């Protein structure tokens, strides 16, 4: 944030005056600061701010709407889970994250069809039950099949999180079995249903498969024999920061600090910390790149998740999903072990999963 | 409408103070950055720099004391975290249009 002269100056001074008034900071010292930084004061603003301070000092509420807005500022930044609903021609594919999804479909004359994923193959290879014990069937068109079964018209929703987690695990289990049987599975996320208006649900699925045959086949082949691993890399954030401060102090000040007066020492300290932020980011970025480079030999694709600019509380430096061919899985995991030692980091990996994160990019899914 | 909304005057005051002090802190940080730049540009004498530094330091102590006395340390931190989150969201969307699909529930 740069403080621009004149436009922001009045506001800056006014806000500082808030602190000075009634506090023990000398007003003239603040005027001095502003002069040294090339800012000028605006008497009207100062007066307004002092009045406001009196209000606050008196203990009476100023404007109640302003008070209410102070806290929601933080809540507004909370991420809202996505519940995407899309319609694709005659077959409506609807998806929810299972939280609260009102069923807007008509009463169950036409049941819907729950889809776990899509596979390529000549003949069915699965014999297992899925959610609520229902047999997992196939709807075939050509070489492709949708794995699933008829289901009620509304998605699986529950306010009880343990029930929800149970269903999600069931969904994952079906896909894991399918992955072992078919080697190529385009997974759907939990609660992907075909909820058609007019056709029977199974016909709707067939029609959709016919409509998207080429792209779905391409997607299935793209992920054939490949699995997803989710990796999180963490370092000792405090240790890294301490080291960087030592390095910076050495570079910037040499050793002159003992002789500095209070004000100068404070400014030098501020400079070190300003440079620390930049350098920390640079180091974090560098280690992220080194790790991705090292893994590039065993990995086919990756998707990186953004990390907050000042880091998260656990010292995370990298969070990624990787698409790894089955034959290179061992090499991948070994490389992670090696990196953990060499780069002095902690690496958490989960998987192998069906390629959840890598199938949505090319319209194989109509979501 | 027609519901009674009870206002806790203490909380309203704290909320407003928290918001104001968060702004003051942000401004103070901007001033610090500006002062460091001035120091690096060499346009001020050591004596002027020392005055600058000492006043900013005093301000910093006063802000901390004020927050402590009014019991708004957490409120201020919360507002500032909210501002940071919003900024991060905006940057993230600008830099990374293909967003990670949050499937933490499945992991």
Mean pLDDT of chain A comes to 74
Oligomer: heterodimer
Please state roughly what percent of the residues of chain A sit in beta strands, choosing from under 5%, 5-15%, 15-25%, 25-35%, 35-45% or over 45%: 15-25%
Helix count, DSSP H or I runs of 4 or more residues of chain B:
3
The proportion of strand residues of chain B reads under 5%
**Could you spell the SSE succession of chain A in H and E letters?**
HHHHHEEEEHEEHHEHHEEHE
Tell me the number of helical segments of chain A per DSSP (H or I, 4 or more residues long): 11
- How many beta-strand elements of chain A? 10
Helix content of chain B: over 70%
The profile of the biggest β sheet of chain B is: none
Instruction: Report the average pLDDT across residues of chain B.
Output: 81
> What is the radius of gyration of chain A computed over CA atoms, rounded to a whole number of angstroms?
30 Å
- Rg of chain B, rounded, reads 20 Å
Please report the distance between the alpha carbons of the first and last residues of chain B: 43 Å
Unreliable stretches of chain A (pLDDT < 50, length at least 5) are: 1-7, 58-106, 361-367
Fraction in helix of chain A: 40-55%
Structural class of chain A: alpha+beta
